[in-house]
Structure formats: structure tokens, C-alpha cells
Amino acid sequence: MYLLIPAAGLGKRMGSDRNKLLLNLLGKPLLAWTLLAAESSHQIRWIGIIGQSYDFPDFKEILGTISLTKPVVLIQGGDTRQESVYNGLQALPKEAKFVLIHDGARCLATPNLFDSCGEILLTCPGLIAAIPVKDTIKIVNNNNLIEATPNRSQLWAAQTPQGFEVKLLKDCHEKGRELEWEVTDDAALFEKCQLPVKIVAGEETNLKVTTPVDLAIAEFILRQRLGIN
Ligand code: CTP
Ligand code: MG
């Protein structure tokens, strides 16, 4: 299974002056935790990290410190996540039939989650890890008035990994570029092309580190996991 890690963001909502994936989380850059989980997954055999070229020296330093056994390539990212993944897809080895895409910012995903996504992907064209939402979600109009309250039992919070048949996802990306679709994840492209996307049980702790609070929560979860006070 081939893995692409989008890591080319700016981390604006983190309010830091550099890519949030380079911030320290319990003694390691955030991205190192993501890579170590991928390294421990039996399903993953190749890792592509999609980043901005100005971050490559830092990425190389991380790779030097954690020395992975799997082949790793650095791929030039784009201005949006969608563009970054597009570039990643072009950089996959020719023989790649299936791809998992996992946000670098989801540094607490377990190797087990990569494994289950990788296994299930062999049986369907597209999947995403997701969990049922805990909050009641409101649809709100431009005047800050509620328009609707969707039935919570049908609402799921999308996570990554997301996995796809490479050829199908490439076609969806091409169509999206042609028709100028703007999406925040790859499943949305699949949906727009009327292709089925299966839900796989995600993990409650698989949060996307987005704001400073998330970083504090991630540290708490890691400390619990590793038995550090
Ligand atoms: N990402 C990417 N290329 C971009 C934008 C985002 O590869 N042009 C990646 C991020 O590095 C991250 C993932 O997509 O791993 C999810 O994006 P997000 O959490 O929004 O990260 P940022 O875009 O860095 O954060 P922000 O939106 O707050 O600037
Ligand atoms: Mg972003």
C-alpha cells in the first residue's frame, strides 16, 4: 500500500510562524509522530511526503533522526490541499494501484488504523476513516440564523486515512480541475463523481492538530499512551 502525507500547509490557525508539522510535540516534531505510525503499519510499503520546498531541509532532518526502513520521497506541494494531493498522485510509482492519503497533522492515528484502512481498501474503490459526531450540528445562514438541524445519527466526522483506487482518484482530480471544484478532502471529489466511499471506523483520538488547544490535547493523549506523567 502506498501512502501520501499532505504536509504542505502553513498552519495559519495554529498562529505559529512556521508549518505546524515542525512544532515540537513531546520531544519530536509533530510530523515525526505521523511518520512513525506509518512506519509501524504492516500495510504501508512506501511513503510520499508532500511539502513546500522551503520545509524540505527540516523534513530531511526529521528523516535523519527517525531513520525509517520504508522508502520515503519528498514531493512538491501546492497552494491548497487539493493541489498538494494532485501533485502527490502524479509522483506515485507507476505500479501503485491503491493509495492511502493521511494528513500529516493527524499525528495520533495508530498503525492499526492504517492497517485496517489498507486491508479494507482492497475490497472497495474508496474509503475514509470517520467517527459519529458528538455535537448537534446546525446549518446557519449568512444572518447567523439557524436554517436546519440535520439528524445527528446520519452525521459523521471525516478523518484520514482516506483511501482510493489510484486511477479513479486521478480521474476525479482531473475532472475537479477542469470544472474548478474546490474541496477540502478527496472523498468529496469521489462523491462529486458519483463514486461510492465507504466509512471505516476511525479513532476518537485521531484528531487533526489545528489550533494550540489541539496541540495540548495531543500531548496529553500521547503522555497517556506512553505512560509518561
Ligand atoms: N496541506 C497541504 N497543502 C496545502 C494545505 C494543507 O498538504 N496547501 C496539508 C497540511 O499540511 C495538513 C493537511 O493538509 O497536514 C490538513 O490541512 P490543515 O489542517 O488545514 O493544515 P494547514 O493548512 O497547515 O493549517 P491552516 O488551514 O490552519 O493554515
Ligand atoms: Mg488548511
Number of DSSP helical runs: 7
Order of helices and strands: EEEHEHEHEHEEEEHHEH
Low-confidence stretches: none
Beta content: 15-25%
Domains, number: 1
Gap from first CA to last CA? 36 Å
**What profile does the largest beta sheet have?**
7 strands, mixed
- Give the full name of the CATH homologous superfamily: Spore Coat Polysaccharide Biosynthesis Protein SpsA, Chain A
Give the overall silhouette: globular
Query: In what order do the strands lie side by side in the largest sheet?
Result: 5-4-1-6-10-7-11
Function: Catalyzes the formation of 4-diphosphocytidyl-2-C-methyl-D-erythritol from CTP and 2-C-methyl-D-erythritol 4-phosphate (MEP).
Enzyme class: transferase
EC number: 2.7.7.60
GO molecular function: 2-C-methyl-D-erythritol 4-phosphate cytidylyltransferase activity
Task: Describe what this molecule looks like in 3D.
Keywords: Isoprene biosynthesis, Nucleotidyltransferase, Transferase. The record marks 13, 20 as: Transition state stabilizer. Pathway: Isoprenoid biosynthesis; isopentenyl diphosphate biosynthesis via DXP pathway; isopentenyl diphosphate from 1-deoxy-D-xylulose 5-phosphate: step 2/6. Catalyzes the formation of 4-diphosphocytidyl-2-C-methyl-D-erythritol from CTP and 2-C-methyl-D-erythritol 4-phosphate (MEP). The protein is 34% helix and 22% strand. Strands 5-4-1-6-10-7-11 form a seven-stranded mixed sheet, sandwiched between helices. Strands 2-3 form a two-stranded antiparallel ribbon. Strands 8-9 form a two-stranded antiparallel sheet. It has helices spanning 30-40, 56-66, 81-90, 111-121, 166-178, 186-192, 212-226; strands spanning 2-6, 24-25, 28-29, 46-51, 72-76, 98-101, 126-132, 139-140, 146-148, 156-165, 198-201. A hairpin with a 5-residue loop joins strand 8 and strand 9. Helix 5 (166-178) crosses helix 6. The protein has seven helices and eleven strands. The protein is of the alpha/beta class. It has one domain: Spore Coat Polysaccharide Biosynthesis Protein SpsA, Chain A (Alpha-Beta Complex), CATH 3.90.550. It binds cytidine-5'-triphosphate (CTP) and magnesium ion. Cytidine-5'-triphosphate is lined by residues 6-13, 20-21, 50, 77-81, 84, 103-105, 208, 210.
